[in-house]
């Protein structure tokens, strides 16, 4: 209501040419494009104690990270459990997810697995048993096997990459799928590399980060 | 020990408070959730279980306790260990409210050196502890019982989380065997507070309590500070700590608190990154230093001041950093962001190098990210690696403690940036966009005038707390802050009701820190004051010298301002067509009440209120139509700040 404050109005002020994108990175407004989303497999070693899973999953939902799957299970060390997370984020999101995970007290180590890591998923697919032999034949095409059968249904187990499991589920679809359960991806690095190694180099936080600036 | 726990089953008073599962299951028709229809055997099982627990956990009679060495050094119950851990951590004050599940801890406080301040509401306890932490730099501690006590703390804990304030909350919990049964006053407190704490603990074992409380204290203050919570089931606090297995002796009290081994804090940034940042700063032609709350937390104000003045780099601050740099200095541009100064926002928008220290690039600072410092290479100093490139990409990330890293940078920057022209430009903006307001005689008192008068009437070391709304913005804009730990507000959460309990915590912290002479002034809003004014009873009871100035516009004014601009002036639920007389209310509480209606009353009333030794409240009737400017609308371009409604 008061007369307003002194000074030139907005349209009379100099304005800079630069711009940032939604990730806060300086970009050339002429050629700016959304940074590509990538799928990352992140292996998280945590203390095996109550509440850890809810703490980790709460972090993902609270910060709106795009999580494709999350699996959890014991490790060789009874005090540790491993959570394998597959996320789909632009590069800054993947980076932020790892950093936020490291802040949780029960989190011991956070590592992104290389692209060539062994990744597996298991699915159980229950289909109509109108033609059990045919179901078995299709299952075998995907190295699957039937693990349960009754006069009405046959249940097939398939293990493999996400793509392979997806293809198996789709192909078995023609028998009339009653129910499907999939575990989500679990993964391990190839060769001698182990993810339990606590001195993983990814911890260095001071290194200059690559910018995706033009 | 007599108390609810020892009430024999069947004798339990149906309405008695404090209640706990043992007595409550004796409740009859008073039970809100119809527990009366529970099978009798279940109730007895529970009662028996609780009684069994008590019998098993009863502390040894005094004569059985070892007397050969100082008794105070030994702890025999979880509750004693909790209190001993607080004492070992140097805690002098705790703020809280009693209740069934936390009673053992209170009982252990009975003989402790710690002063407990009984608050009127647990939210008040959390805010008081938060402010205590801000002013003293040491964690404030608050306590509450389970269930509603714990949930009432949540606003204050969330506030501390947003502002990275060191805070420890101790909450009572139902005995572990009842957890998960929806027992009386059971709330999943660790579940509720996980998203708003730095870490929390469920101390289910008497033996773990001391360590958990110690860790919580240490964690709250180390690295990036923040709130921690220890949930204390009653059987763990009542429970006896097993004697040391090796020598059969009672455990000694916990030592100086330490964070868990797995918690790592990077102290200094790596030399190469510092060099790269220094070269960038030397090349800058339009450098700007942006100080965030982390600067004050890390005690880095001094090193930042030297850095800025020596190199001639203009300084803006975020709201939590107000006071980190003297606002009356030539190169001070004061606060940037939504209601920051025009010159601060011009400088942020046009700088070519932004040296951001201990800030998290909150949206109230940045406005729309696309237009935030769009030409600037960003040097970001922060102790939390996750803040680097979270909202604004850091071209030069420097992870480490603000004080240590700024010292590294100061050493490494060899040449002054050639910024004479930039300093002139900035000075031009300071003149062009001066922070002024008009105060015609025929209009009601302007709130800005009252803030200036309060500033005038108090020394430089005065501590100012606020509620949330327009009055908060006027307080930050028109009070000239020159010292750190003087500006105490709810920044990130924006919790109305913060001001009065914060003033209580700030007063006690200032006294504890030898700042007894520093006045504590709460600049409050009428709406904010109405949210927590019951804490006035605490200020009176504890004879705390605080002055509350309610900038009373009979509106939740910030909402009214937005409605006028963004909702066609449809003032839905933002006006109070009746408001209590705050001066009269103050008198009813036993505080001193004052009232201001005209300009000519301002100076002398303020003087009288400040002179009163004890709590006083000034009900200042200010112009209800005054708006806060400059303003960058949400998500807007900082450089396009509005100077009046016409610009929006
Ligand atoms: C607990 C809480 N509830 C609601 C809000 C939303 N809000 C922000 S400012 C404001 C108005 C505050 O009124 P008052 O304390 O009188 O301050 P004024 O703006 O009038 O100075 C409201 C309701 C809030 N910030 N906090
Ligand atoms: Mg108001």
For the structure shown, list the relevant keywords.
heterodimer; A: 214 residues; alpha+beta; Alpha-Beta Plaits; five-stranded antiparallel β-sheet; four-stranded antiparallel β-sheet; 4 helices; disordered C terminus; B: 648 residues; alpha/beta; Rossmann fold; 3 domains; six-stranded parallel β-sheet; 24 helices; disordered N terminus; binds thiamine diphosphate; binds magnesium ion
Overview of the structural elements:
The complex is a heterodimer of chains A (214) and B (648). Chain A is of the alpha+beta class. Chain A contains 4 helices and 11 strands, in the order βββαββαββαββαββ. Chain A has helices at 52-62, 91-103, 132-141, 162-172; strands at 19-20, 26-27, 37-47, 67-74, 80-90, 107-112, 118-128, 145-149, 153-160, 177-182, 186-188. In chain A, the strands form 3 sheets. In chain A, strands 7, 8, 9, 10 and 11 form a 5-stranded antiparallel sheet that branches. In chain A, strands 4-5-3-6 form a 4-stranded antiparallel sheet, covered by helices on one side. Chain A has a two-stranded antiparallel ribbon with strand order 1-2. In chain A, a hairpin with a 5-residue loop joins strand 1 and strand 2 (26-27). With 648 residues, chain B is of the alpha/beta class. Chain B has 3 domains: 74-242, Thiamin diphosphate (ThDP)-binding fold, Pyr/PP domains (Rossmann fold, 3-Layer(aba) Sandwich); 271-432, TPP-binding domain (Rossmann fold); 447-629, Rossmann fold (3-Layer(aba) Sandwich). In chain B, 37% of the residues lie in helices and 14% in strands. Chain B contains 24 helices and 18 strands. In chain B, the strands form 3 sheets. Chain B has a 6-stranded parallel sheet with strand order 2-1-3-4-6-5, with helices on both faces. A 6-stranded parallel sheet of chain B has the order 9-8-7-10-11-12, with helices on both faces. Chain B has a 6-stranded parallel sheet with strand order 14-13-15-16-18-17, sandwiched between helices. Chains A and B meet through strand 1, helix 1 and helix 2 of A and helix 13 and strand 12 of B. The structure holds thiamine diphosphate (TPP) and magnesium ion. Residues 467-471, 494-496, 525-528, 551, 553, 555-559 of chain B line the site of thiamine diphosphate (TPP).
């Amino acid at each position: 209501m008061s007369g307003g404050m002194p000074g030139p109005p907005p349209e009379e002020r100099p304005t800079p040419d630069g711009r940032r994108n939604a990730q806060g990175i300086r970009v050339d407004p002429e050629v700016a494009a959304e940074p590509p989303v990538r799928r990352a497999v992140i292996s998280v070693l945590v203390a095996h104690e109550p509440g850890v899973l809810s703490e980790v999953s709460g972090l993902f939902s609270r910060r709106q990270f795009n999580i494709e799957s999350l699996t959890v299970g014991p490790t060789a060390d009874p005090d540790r459990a491993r959570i394998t997370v597959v996320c789909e984020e632009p590069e800054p999101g993947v980076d932020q997810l790892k950093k936020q995970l490291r802040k949780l007290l029960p989190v011991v180590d956070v590592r992104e697995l290389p692209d060539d890591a062994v990744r597996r998923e298991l699915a159980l697919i229950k289909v109509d048993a109108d033609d059990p032999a045919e179901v078995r034949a299709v299952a075998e095409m995907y190295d699957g096997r039937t693990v349960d059968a009754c006069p009405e249904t046959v249940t097939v187990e398939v293990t493999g990459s996400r793509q392979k499991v997806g293809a198996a589920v789709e192909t078995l679809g023609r028998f009339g799928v009653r129910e499907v359960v999939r575990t989500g991806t679990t993964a391990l690095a190839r060769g001698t590399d182990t993810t339990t190694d606590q001195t993983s180099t990814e911890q260095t936080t001071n290194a200059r980060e690559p910018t995706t600036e033009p | 020990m007599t108390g609810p726990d020892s009430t024999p089953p069947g004798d339990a008073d149906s309405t008695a408070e404090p209640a706990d599962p043992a007595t409550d299951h004796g409740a009859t028709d008073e039970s809100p959730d119809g527990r009366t229809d529970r099978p009798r055997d279940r109730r007895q099982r529970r009662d028996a279980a609780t009684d069994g627990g008590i019998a098993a956990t009863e502390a040894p009679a005094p004569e059985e306790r070892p007397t050969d060495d100082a008794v105070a050094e030994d702890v025999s119950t979880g509750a004693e260990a909790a209190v001993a851990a607080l004492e070992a951590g140097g805690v002098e004050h705790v703020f809280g409210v009693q209740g069934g599940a936390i009673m053992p801890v209170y009982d252990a406080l009975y003989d402790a050196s710690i002063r407990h301040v009984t608050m009127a509401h647990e939210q008040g306890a959390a805010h008081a502890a938060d402010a205590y932490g801000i002013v003293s730099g040491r964690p404030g501690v608050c306590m509450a019982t389970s269930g509603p006590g714990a949930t009432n703390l949540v606003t204050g804990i969330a506030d501390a989380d947003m502002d990275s304030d060191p805070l420890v909350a101790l909450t009572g919990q139902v005995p572990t065997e009842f957890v998960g049964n929806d027992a009386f006053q059971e709330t999943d407190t660790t579940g509720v507070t996980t998203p708003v704490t730095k870490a929390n603990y469920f101390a289910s074992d008497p033996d773990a309590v001391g360590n958990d409380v110690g860790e919580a204290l240490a964690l709250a203050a180390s690295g990036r500070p923040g709130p921690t919570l220890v949930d204390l089931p009653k059987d763990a606090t009542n429970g006896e700590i097993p004697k040391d297995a090796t020598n059969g002796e009672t455990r000694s009290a916990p030592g100086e608190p330490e964070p868990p081994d797995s918690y790592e804090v990077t102290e200094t940034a790596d030399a190469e990154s510092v060099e790269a940042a220094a070269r960038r700063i030397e090349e800058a032609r339009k450098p700007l230093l942006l100080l965030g709350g982390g600067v004050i937390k890390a005690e880095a104000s001094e090193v930042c001041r030297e850095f800025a003045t020596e190199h001639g780099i203009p300084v803006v601050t975020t709201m939590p950093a107000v006071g980190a740099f003297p606002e009356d200095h030539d190169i001070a541009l004061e606060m940037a962001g939504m209601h920051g100064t025009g010159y601060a926002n011009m400088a942020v928008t046009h700088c070519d190098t932004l040296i951001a220290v201990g800030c998290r690039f909150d949206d109230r600072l940045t406005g729309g990210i696309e237009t935030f410092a769009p030409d600037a290479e960003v040097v970001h100093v922060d102790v939390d690696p996750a803040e680097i490139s979270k909202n604004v990409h850091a071209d030069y990330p420097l992870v480490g403690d603000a004080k240590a890293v700024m010292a590294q940078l100061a050493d490494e920057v060899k040449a002054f940036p050639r910024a004479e022209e930039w300093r002139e430009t900035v000075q031009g903006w300071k003149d062009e966009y001066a922070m002024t307001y008009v105060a015609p005689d025929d209009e009601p008192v302007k709130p800005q005038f009252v803030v200036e008068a309060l500033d005038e009437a108090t020394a430089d070391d005065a501590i100012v707390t606020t509620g949330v709304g327009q009055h908060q913005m006027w307080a930050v804009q028109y009070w000239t802050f020159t010292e750190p730990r003087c500006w105490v507000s709810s920044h990130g959460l924006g919790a109305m009701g913060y001001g009065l309990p914060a003033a209580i915590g700030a007063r006690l912290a200032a006294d504890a820190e030898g700042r007894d002479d520093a006045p504590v002034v709460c600049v409050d809003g009428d709406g904010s004051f109405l949210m927590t004014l019951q804490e006035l009873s605490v200020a009176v009871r504890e004879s705390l010298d605080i002055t509350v100035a309610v900038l009373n516009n009979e509106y939740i004014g910030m909402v009214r301002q937005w409605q006028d601009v963004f909702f066609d002036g449809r003032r839905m639920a933002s006006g109070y067509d009746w408001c209590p007389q705050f001066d009269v209310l103050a008198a009813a509480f036993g505080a001193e009440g004052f009232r201001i209606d005209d300009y000519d009353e301002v100076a002398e009333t303020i003087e009288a209120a400040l002179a009163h030794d004890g709590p006083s409240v000034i009900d200042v009737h200010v112009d209800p139509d005054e708006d806060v400017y400059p303003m960058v609308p949400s998500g807007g371009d900082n450089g396009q700040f509005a100077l009046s409604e016409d610009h929006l």
